[in-house]
Design brief:
alpha+beta, 25 strands
Length: about 550
């Protein structure tokens, strides 16, 4: 029977990844800098505008073909783009290229200094720029398709841990803060870790992987690098700007000594609870270094590109890669206000009249009326495969933990997770994070999906990955170091390693009695002495907030 199973698996692998595909690629970077000013800029609590350009912004397109299908990947210098706008852009692209809309992936970098195309919090969509960008996305796809040529591709990932860190920290029980509705619910929040006196620790893990998919022409000349990294945005840059994403792309091309046709595409990894500053190393509230000693955006982007280049050199490119892509659409509910909250919100909105909200209270009051009116929304999820390399997407600001779940369970070990793709549907905290509250959980279009949105989206993405890979998801395996082996040799009645991605069960390693996690526990953080317990891997542990 074992021989039969091995034969079946071998045949499945052959059929899933044929060796005679006619792999081609075309790339273009199309300038999408606004032509008319002032322009509304998204990414803040209240409305703001820009009237100048710090650096140009782009829609960077990559079209791939294998002789059977074509797919398009576009990374846009934008904070977020709504699904209806992207659906229209994909329909326009389909008319011009013949590429089906469900084989087009469009994502935002999440720069906070680009024109607004999505109404969110205190900012509306810019009425002039939104249709302009819609057409430009379709134009970029068509231009990239025209440049299709024989190509080869490869994959690698770099460890860039010093360029990313956890920004959401858990507050002390006696330092709980109020939410915008006047309730003491904020047990965790962004940047609370800058003051060590207020916090107990981080609320989740970070993802240090800087992932690279490299595309070369048949002669080995660089055509494109699709990169992916979990770091929210740099900040402190004047709009209009591509933030560190554009600088990384430019640096990478220069370091490769590539010509003007090379396109770098830095996509947004799972960064909902991530920023660049490591609050574990310094109490910033009492020991803030002078500005000139702090990391600046140019140095950050250059250092990240240098890290990418080091591991780019190790990539083995292969021709004749085949493609696969799958999409699903899912309806999710919003967390709508109850009667009392709605009455509170409507009274504030009535007093505002026609003006934009000016305070956090006004912003969240207005958002309650929007959620009440909409009730639910449709989201788009995708997975695609390039040879044995996989990509899956969420339209959300996704926590690093969710990205780690998807990578660990994907049928293909080489998996990239691109967030804010095919829509801009807000934060999706893992369910246990809702108990801790904070900005990322406050009900609004920026974070209003149902509490179970994250597990539903994660499961749907895994099913899409199984479909494009034509093989089942992996079961994460944990290595056993000398300390773990010593515990196992004692043959304990119960042994809870508490290294789960999520609750509610704490699995008994001995198989006798599983435990149950209560509220206030966060998962998959770094535990003690990895080399003794899980050599080659981070020893993961639950933390009890």
């Amino acid at each position: 029977m074992k021989t039969v199973h091995l034969l079946r698996l071998s045949l499945a692998f052959i059929f899933a990844f044929p060796a005679n595909a006619e792999f081609r690629a075309g790339t273009v970077a199309l300038d999408v800098t606004p032509k008319q000013f002032p322009v509304l800029v998204n990414g803040g609590m209240t409305s703001r505008t820009a009237d100048s350009v710090t650096d140009p912004i782009y829609a960077r397109a990559l079209v791939l073909a294998d002789g059977k299908i074509e797919i398009a990947i576009v990374v846009v210098d934008s904070c977020m783009m709504p699904r209806p706008v992207l659906d229209k852009a994909k329909a326009l692209a389909h008319e011009r290229t013949g590429i089906p809309a469900n084989r087009i992936l469009v994502s935002a970098t999440h720069t906070h200094t680009a024109p607004s195309t999505l109404a969110c919090l205190g900012t509306k969509a810019d009425p002039r720029y939104t249709p302009y960008l819609t057409g430009k996305i379709a134009e970029a796809i068509a231009a990239a398709q025209k440049k299709l040529q024989p190509a080869q591709a490869g994959w690698n990932q770099a460890d860039a841990a010093e360029f990313t860190a956890l920004r959401r920290w858990i507050r002390r029980p006696d330092r709980i803060a109020n939410d915008p509705f006047g309730n003491p619910t904020v047990r965790a929040n962004m940047h609370a870790g800058r003051n060590w006196d207020d916090v107990t620790g981080e609320s989740g893990p970070e993802d240090p992987d800087l992932t690279l998919i490299s595309i070369q022409n048949a002669k080995g000349k660089p055509l494109a690098i699709l990169a992916n990294f979990s770091m929210h945005y740099f900040s402190g840059v004047k709009a209009i700007s591509s933030d560190y994403f554009g600088k990384f792309n430019k640096n990478l091309g220069a370091m490769l000594k590539a010509d003007e046709n090379f396109v770098g595409l830095m996509s947004h990894g799972c960064s909902g609870d991530i920023w660049r500053r490591d609050y574990t190393t310094r109490n910033w509230s009492k020991d803030t270094p002078p500005k000139e000693e702090q990391m600046q955006i140019d140095a950050y982007a250059k250092g990240l590109a240098e890290r990418a280049l080091r591991d780019y050199r190790k990539i083995k490119h292969r021709p004749n890669l085949d493609l696969a892509m799958a999409e699903t659409r899912m309806t999710l509910k919003y967390r709508v206000p109850d009667v009392g909250l709605l009455q509170w919100a409507e009274a504030i909105v009535k007093e505002m009249g026609d003006r934009n909200p000016k305070t956090k209270t006004e912003v969240y009051a207005f958002e309650q009326t929007v959620l009440h009116e909409r009730k639910q929304t449709e989201i788009v999820l995708q997975a695609l495969r390039i040879g044995d390399m996989a990509i899956t997407t969420t339209p959300n600001e996704t926590y690093a933990l969710t990205g780690l779940k998807l990578k660990a369970r994907s049928p293909l070990p080489n998996t990239m997770v691109i967030e804010l793709a095919n829509g801009g549907d807000g934060y999706i905290p893992p369910p246990e994070q809702h108990f801790l509250g904070g900005y990322n959980t406050w009900a609004a279009r920026s974070a209003g999906l149902e509490v179970q949105a994250e597990p539903k989206i994660t499961e749907a993405c895994l099913r899409l990955l199984e479909k494009v890979a034509a093989k089942p998801r992996r079961v994460p395996q944990v290595s056993r170091g000398p300390s773990a082996k010593a515990i196992a040799d004692l043959k304990p009645v119960h042994w809870w390693r508490m290294d789960e991605f999520q609750g509610p069960l704490a699995i008994d390693e001995q198989g006798n009695r599983d435990g149950a996690y209560e509220d206030g526990v966060v998962f998959y953080l770094e535990g003690p002495i990895s080399k003794s317990f899980t050599p080659g891997h981070v020893n993961r542990s639950a933390h009890f907030a």
